[in-house]
């Protein structure tokens, strides 16, 4: 499961930053593109006022986190470190940009948005078991909402990511069915070549079996079984 969840954190994002003036105010427009949903391209605006509001929201969450240190949000403290990291880079960017638009500033804003995207992607691919129940219902959800609103992520991208996460978590590890012959219906390769270690193999809820790597790439575009078209989700 951890290996598959790791694959969720590797969604490719492409970003491009432009600067413009709205009256006397400098605003950066970062175009974001991802392959997780059809035609998934949108623009996240970053102004000094918006960045300051973002930083204040994060600072309040950090303060709440330290107010009750007896109950960690996550088993390994990963969410706590992620929150503090995003606050740190937001604070640094707020202090160093928006005086004037330069190529260096545009690069800084673009890298910042990419890091916030990475934080969002990581936060939405954690196992629920690693997060305390109260934190999941309160602080972690609040952190997620703050990131999503700042990045202006469209509903269709969020829905596509949720479908992908549900599909990935409903795959079951099995041994390659070499005794049955045949092979993966996606790549058309046999389950195992002579003298070569077998690739990781998974079974879908519908019963069909594929190479894990093949089906992960498939469900990034389509959360249905390639053979029977059944939805890759919990069995009713």
Automatic annotation (TrEMBL):
<feature type="domain" description="RING-type">
    <location>
        <begin position="184"/>
        <end position="229"/>
    </location>
</feature>
<dbReference type="Pfam" id="PF13639">
    <property type="entry name" value="zf-RING_2"/>
</dbReference>
<dbReference type="GO" id="GO:0061630">
    <property type="term" value="F:ubiquitin protein ligase activity"/>
</dbReference>
<dbReference type="InterPro" id="IPR001841">
    <property type="entry name" value="Znf_RING"/>
</dbReference>
<keyword id="KW-0862">Zinc</keyword>
<dbReference type="GO" id="GO:0008270">
    <property type="term" value="F:zinc ion binding"/>
</dbReference>
<keyword id="KW-0479">Metal-binding</keyword>
<dbReference type="GO" id="GO:0016567">
    <property type="term" value="P:protein ubiquitination"/>
</dbReference>
<protein>
    <recommendedName>
        <fullName>RING-type domain-containing protein</fullName>
    </recommendedName>
</protein>
<dbReference type="GO" id="GO:0005737">
    <property type="term" value="C:cytoplasm"/>
</dbReference>
<keyword id="KW-0863">Zinc-finger</keyword>
<dbReference type="InterPro" id="IPR013083">
    <property type="entry name" value="Znf_RING/FYVE/PHD"/>
</dbReference>
